[in-house]
Design brief:
The chain has 299 residues and is α+β, with helices and mostly antiparallel strands. Helix content is 47%, strand content 20%. A three-stranded antiparallel β-sheet has the order 3-2-5. β2 and β3 form a beta hairpin.
């Protein structure tokens, strides 16, 4: 009888020990609720025991958790529809607050991350979403970390993964980028032409002082053209070379020039003699004779 009682006691003790034994891993902390009331300190990593049917041990993971944030549709400050998704890295720094202050800290962090991401989309321009993500990540981290600290959670990092744009906006941005590259190419080409024109102007001044340099440059051009496999060779003959040959040739003695004739303009300038005035015939006046009256017309 005594032996049976001993074996029964040992069996009961073994069952109790098995029911009360708990193992807390290194990256975990154990929060004990005794009859629904929190004990002062969480259980440290290792082997621990609780009172069966009285205590309830809840293990909290202290490792960094990677949580993807689903894509959120929103309208930017410059009225562009986009879809942005992100990822949040966080960890529990206070196991007691993670158990007592919030029902499910993972779900709570996920919801805060989604609302904060939508708020960031509405406050930012499209260019900021595409080019200034570091600043947006910092602002998003601050927005999520503020309420999460009360839950015993610390936001370690927030990253915006992708920004999806409508197809029409993608085509518009492609045309804009192409126009910008074309503008830069034209500016570079114009700048090169300006620099080349300045250098050519300096070279022209040097060749003007020394005409033989121009001939050497002409010969170099001919050699460069002849280097190609061409069947026709065009050899220009500059006028400057003719002038150079004219200055180099001796000038013969000029014969005596005849006396210049009077210009026609001077001859035409002498006015012609005026015509003599016509002489009118003498008018005879009849003189009456005494004793014979003058005859009347018709008598």
């Amino acid at each position: 009888m005594i032996v049976e009682l001993v074996f029964a006691g040992l069996a009961a003790g073994a069952v109790y020990v098995a029911a009360a034994s708990r193992v807390v891993r290194q990256y975990e902390r154990g929060v004990v609720l005794r009859l629904g009331r929190l004990k002062s300190e969480p259980k440290a990593p290792g082997y621990t025991m609780i009172i069966p049917f009285v205590d309830r041990l809840r293990k909290v993971n202290l490792q960094i958790v990677t949580m993807p944030v689903p894509g959120q549709d929103g309208i930017t400050r410059d009225n562009v529809s986009v879809k942005v998704d992100a990822v949040v890295y966080f960890k529990v720094i206070n196991a007691v607050d993670a158990v007592i202050q919030v029902e499910d800290y993972r779900f709570a962090v996920s919801q805060v991350a989604q609302t904060s991401l939508r708020s960031i989309i509405g406050k930012s321009d499209l260019d900021e979403l595409l080019s200034n993500r570091e600043k947006l990540n910092e602002g998003l981290e601050v927005m999520i970390d503020s309420p999460a600290l009360g839950w015993g959670v610390q936001i370690d990092r927030v990253e915006i993964k992708d920004v999806s744009l409508p197809e029409a906006m993608k085509r518009s941005m492609s045309r804009q980028a192409e126009a910008e590259r074309e503008r830069r190419a034209r500016i570079i080409n114009a700048d090169a032409e300006l620099q080349a024109s300045k250098v050519l102007a300096q070279a022209a001044l040097q060749m003007e002082d020394n005409p033989s340099a121009l001939q050497l440059r002409l010969l170099q051009t001919v050699v460069a053209v002849a280097a190609e496999k061409n069947s026709t060779l065009v050899l220009p003959f500059p006028v400057e070379l003719l002038r150079f040959l004219e200055r180099a040739a001796p000038t013969p003695a000029a014969p005596a020039a005849p006396a210049p004739a009077a210009p026609a303009a001077e001859t035409a300038a002498v006015p012609p003699a005026p015509d003599p005035a016509p002489v009118s015939p003498p008018v005879s006046t009849p003189v009456p004779i005494e004793g014979n009256p003058p005859a009347r017309n018709g008598e």
